[in-house]
Design goal:
Residues 61-145 form the ILCR1 Ig-like domain. The protein has one helix and ten strands. With 156 residues, the protein is mainly β. It is extended. The model is unreliable at 152-156 (pLDDT under 50).
Length: 156
């Protein structure tokens, strides 16, 4: 049986948490626990050297994006996707942006490098990708993956 506990904005990076769950089936007490360690963010002054990339891989692999805007231009068949890039101290250098329809990758993924990101007024890194030949009325899925770490990655 699955239990869902809303913990939004209650967990902090660099901390370890232990959850105890007690049940009472047929008047028998049963307790189980689960521990969860949340890795610390790398230092803000990271230079993304090979050594720093190795130390950030665990937390970088858990990064996921959000989409501040997805705009469809039906007359022209364009979809303009904006996404949040990872913090620079995670040393993620390139992103793959993909457009899917019914489980099928529609077009070649678009590669967005860290140099192509812009910083918004809140100091968030924002990436952008434009897909052509989109049809109005279709339910597309958009996926963003990190493609590589810093240019030093080849040296690892």
């Amino acid at each position: 049986r699955e239990i869902s506990i809303p913990l939004e904005n209650k967990l902090q990076l660099g901390k370890k948490y232990v959850f105890f769950i007690t049940t009472n089936p047929k008047n028998l007490n049963a307790t189980t626990y689960k521990s969860l360690s949340i890795p610390s963010m790398p230092q803000e002054t990271s230079t993304c050297s090979p050594k720093e990339i190795v130390s950030t891989r665990k937390i970088a692999s858990q990064w996921s994006t959000a989409f501040p805007s997805i705009k469809l231009f039906p007359l022209h068949g364009f979809i303009n996707v904006s996404f949040f890039g990872a913090p620079q101290n995670l040393c993620i250098y390139r992103y793959m942006v993909q457009l899917w329809l019914d489980g099928v990758l529609l077009v070649e993924e678009i590669i967005v490098s860290q140099d192509d990101l812009r910083m918004d007024e809140s100091r968030n890194l924002i990436g952008s990708a434009i897909f052509e030949k989109a049809e109005h009325g279709k339910n597309y899925s958009i996926k963003v993956y990190y493609n590589s770490y810093s240019p030093f990655q080849r040296q690892l």
